[in-house]
């Protein structure tokens, strides 16, 4: 069995008048993430990790923020496309581990739902996906609730 590993990171600004979408789940909050697509930082970090594992570049290359067709895009649909790219090359996901860093709101009640949404989109089992949530202990821009960031590691396997 051959393996490849990739890591991904993303951050978006928190602003008023936008929905907060993480891992494909809309989370009730008075602020949402600003971005060209739905600004789902968790899904973006996972996509970058998948692409990175196969040296295929990053999501900005496949879904440029200057391209109007990705305006307001559901990031799960982008994730599905990245997954197809990975599978077309003969690889599949071994497991994903990820962390969301957000001061507020409390994300724990939503983690299972995110996991289910991502697993459905990737056609893998929920137990292949780890999602952790932590705060930044009030430090820096994330601690001041100016944004939310996410980190992901993905292991790809092939026979
Ligand atoms: Mg992004």
UniProtKB/TrEMBL annotation:
It catalyses: 4-CDP-2-C-methyl-D-erythritol 2-phosphate = 2-C-methyl-D-erythritol 2,4-cyclic diphosphate + CMP. Residues 3-156 form the 2-C-methyl-D-erythritol 2,4-cyclodiphosphate synthase domain. This is 2-C-methyl-D-erythritol 2,4-cyclodiphosphate synthase. A divalent metal cation binds at residues 10, 12, 44. CDD domains: MECDP_synthase. Pathway: Isoprenoid biosynthesis; isopentenyl diphosphate biosynthesis via DXP pathway; isopentenyl diphosphate from 1-deoxy-D-xylulose 5-phosphate: step 4/6. The lineage of its organism: Bacteria, Bacillati, Cyanobacteriota, Cyanophyceae, Oscillatoriophycideae. Involved in the biosynthesis of isopentenyl diphosphate (IPP) and dimethylallyl diphosphate (DMAPP), two major building blocks of isoprenoid compounds. Catalyzes the conversion of 4-diphosphocytidyl-2-C-methyl-D-erythritol 2-phosphate (CDP-ME2P) to 2-C-methyl-D-erythritol 2,4-cyclodiphosphate (ME-CPP) with a corresponding release of cytidine 5-monophosphate (CMP). The gene is ispF. InterPro entries: MECDP_synthase, MECDP_synthase_CS, MECDP_synthase_sf. One of its GO terms (biological process) is terpenoid biosynthetic process. It comes from Gomphosphaeria aponina SAG 52.96 = DSM 107014.
């Amino acid at each position: 069995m051959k393996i490849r590993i990739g890591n991904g990171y993303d951050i978006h600004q928190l602003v008023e008048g936008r929905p907060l979408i993480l891992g494909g789940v809309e989370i009730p909050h008075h602020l949402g993430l600003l971005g060209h697509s739905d600004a789902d930082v968790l899904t973006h970090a996972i996509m970058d990790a998948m692409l990175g594992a196969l040296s295929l570049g990053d999501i900005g290359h496949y879904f440029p923020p200057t391209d109007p067709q990705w305006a307001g895009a559901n990031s799960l649909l982008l994730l599905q496309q990245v997954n197809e790219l990975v599978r077309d090359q003969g690889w599949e996901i071994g497991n994903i581990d990820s962390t969301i860093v957000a001061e507020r709101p409390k994300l724990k009640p939503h983690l299972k739902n995110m996991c289910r949404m991502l697993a459905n989109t990737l056609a893998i089992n929920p137990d292949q996906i780890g999602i952790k949530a932590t705060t930044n202990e009030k430090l820096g821009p994330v601690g001041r609730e100016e944004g939310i960031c996410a980190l992901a590691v993905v292991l790809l396997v092939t026979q």
